[in-house]
Amino acid sequence: MTAAARESVQDPPARRNLKLVIAYDGSRYHGWQRQAAGLPTVQQQIEDVLPRILGHPVTIFGAGRTDAGVHAEGQVANLYTRNLAIPCQGLRRAINSRLSGDIAVRSITEVAEDFHASRSATGKTYRYRIHTAPLRPVGLFGQVYHFWRPLDVEAMRSAARMLVGRHDFRGFATTSDQRRTSVRTIFRCDVVEAGSELQVICQGDGFLYNMVRNIVGTLVEIGRGRWQPQQVRRILESRDRSLAGPTALPDGLSLVCVHYDG
Amino acid sequence: MTAAARESVQDPPARRNLKLVIAYDGSRYHGWQRQAAGLPTVQQQIEDVLPRILGHPVTIFGAGRTDAGVHAEGQVANLYTRNLAIPCQGLRRAINSRLSGDIAVRSITEVAEDFHASRSATGKTYRYRIHTAPLRPVGLFGQVYHFWRPLDVEAMRSAARMLVGRHDFRGFATTSDQRRTSVRTIFRCDVVEAGSELQVICQGDGFLYNMVRNIVGTLVEIGRGRWQPQQVRRILESRDRSLAGPTALPDGLSLVCVHYDG
Q1: Which residue of chain A is at minimal alpha-carbon distance from B144?
Q2: What is the ipTM of this complex?
């Protein structure tokens, strides 16, 4: 055995790749992504506590750039650390004890070197909560969109079904979205009644900027009777944002989970 | 019939006394009561929208001065208005449409001239929510106290039972409370398991400053095994605040309702 071969056998790996599942209440943050201006964001809050725990500066890579006021139950991020000693459970506890109560690292697991929270993702699931009871739900302030006028749930459901499949969703994207292709696949778009709430659950292989909020804004217009469900087909075919509804408030939106193969 | 008598028959009442039931998420407010410094408070938020609706400046009298971060499902206030035209339902809608989503006037009713939200009250019910699941409940940020270590619920219950009755609660009051008498009657003090929560429900004819939060702080110390339930008796007998537990966070506390005779 050559010295080099012996070395490569004995060498511990130079770094570990860690996958974090993160929940947060986005109300007090300017979205997930670190901002140049130093505004509080979820990524910045987590990155700022890591150096004292891991012993070196760290960048975390998130799967989804949630906007200001948008929440997450299962945001995923990964980070590389040269700290080979700290166990995942201990790291999770150390991070959480230093974070504010509106951010929680739910789990940390060691993953393959090539795992990337965003590039390895095969899809995401979002949930949008519409509170439909007449009384303003003060205890859910920032967590739901309060819409108390009657909604035709069946009309919303048939509109939602037309979104399922592979389509060009440009008409549902806020126009500043500059991504190359606006073709995405929606696997599931359900309108679910849950107590005093109507929830729109949307699972897809990817989403354009504001796409879920524009879908919800359109479904609400259909539910209140301004448009027929067929409006969804017109928006998809024309790819014309001006035919779709307003962008629904961020409050009701949550990134439920990020999907990966295997 | 004299002219004076005729006048008193024909005159409409000079003013109406209105009773408001109000819910709020106290997270963003410096308590109920208007502050000299102009800090945002719930009373100030409501008083500030009233002149444009009623046509004259208004002071509202609240039943309970909830502290910063404390919530309400059923705070009660009354106000006198010279506006004899506006119906209660219309007033309620007009106020709510001008308030932020974390405050809601639940009802407005016309009451007798001598009704006073605070002085007419015969009691209040508070609820304190302790979230006991291990994972930090980010969606309930500001709404609950997260205590994830094991709690002996039976010990807490037997301690809570000792609080029921007429006692001098000075040992459970924050010492800055200068009220004449510290004798109060607790009608009910229950420790209720509700899903991932332990709720302390406390009903009494009145509460000293921080009294519910000091009771909860003491019950938690008993639940975690630091003290025996009998500690409650020692605190009541000694009237010594230093024997009681820490003041629990405001987050978990909510004024559920205010009681009146009849």
Answers
A1: A101
A2: 0.83
A251 Cα to chain B: minimum distance (Å):
11
CB-nearest partner of B102 from A23, A102, A141: A141
Backbone φ and ψ for A122, nearest 5 degrees, come out as -105, -10
Bridge partners, A132 (sequence order): none
Please list the pLDDT of chain B residue by residue as tens digits (262 residues): 455 555 555 566 689 999 999 999 999 999 999 998 889 999 999 999 999 999 999 999 999 999 999 999 999 999 999 999 999 999 999 999 999 999 999 999 999 999 999 999 999 999 999 999 998 999 999 999 999 999 999 999 999 999 999 999 999 998 776 668 999 999 999 999 999 999 999 999 999 999 999 999 999 999 999 999 999 999 999 999 999 999 999 999 999 999 999 7
Place of tokens 């009773």: B19
Comparing CA positions, the residue from A70, A91, A65 lying closest to residue A24 is: A70
Residues of B known to be catalytic: 67
pTM for this prediction: 0.89
Q: Which two tokens stand for residue B180?
A: 């004449």
d(CA A187, CA A204): 5
